[in-house]
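Tutorial, part two.
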Amino acid sequence: MRRPPLSNDFSWSKSRHEKFSECLRAYYLYYYRSWGGWEPDAAKDVRELYVLKKLANRFTWAGSVVHETLKDVLLDWRAGRAVDPAAVEARARKLMQDDFRHSRGKAYWTQKYRKQFTGLVEHEYAEPVTDETWKQNFETVRSALSWFFASRWPRISQALKPAQWLEVDAGYDFAHFSLDGLKVFAIPDFAYVDDDGAPVVVDWKTGKYRDGYEEQVLGYALYVAQRYRFPVEKVRASLVYLNEGVEKDVTVDPAALDSFREHFATSVASMRALLKDPATNTPKDAEAFVPTEDLNACARCVFRRPCGREAAVARARAEVA
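Running the prediction step on this input gives:
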């Protein structure tokens, strides 16, 4: 029996806001025009957009491998299993080697691979990336894992009693909450209750600090408070920069939460203003989603070919070189 089609419901997340802020056309292609591209009978252009939207770049790939690896480590500790850091690093290296081969051959156009990884935009657009740069990408992963195992987090994690664990990167199907009647996705990498009874949310970062991270973990705080019925002012939040060895506590107080809610409301209103029918999440025509004029943004975008910016990006890169 054929399953009913999925519904493209409107929701909010930090990543959705970032796409909306950087380029309206890319936002439209990602959240609307590519919808249904997984279906066997999808139109060719829709299928292309769907495959492209799933591609990562080498930086987000490295970050996702670290997150996947730490998720497995934490779940092992939660289950009382021993973890060998050297074996963990070896598995991450093997995973990245397999990913790289799959992507380099552009097998993502014809084959299913693994849910967390499809392919790399650098391969799709034949970007000039040296072997040394690819090796450095694994070094980012290795150094992040190395710092983690030498940090306080193994001790904290392994000392938790079963009742103190809340969740470990629970995924989109589980980790969301309601704000002003709208589904908001918020997926903390690690959430637990400390010995004082306070809930703690942790977000691992492999890159450097940038604006917006504090608001991201404030969303996690609201999520944990709502799902596990804690007073939100009790929640503690931490950003952990694995490659810099820096931890930053994020203040969860009424002023910070009010700022988050204001940002959220403004973002949602701007997105809804480009809907033909907000009730069904039907967008206006593509022309309403004006593409950015910033070629630097286009150079980071997976949609540069269908958007007609591939040649302009190549020329700009050639001029710099």
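The radius of gyration is 21 Å. In part three we will examine how such features are distributed along the chain.
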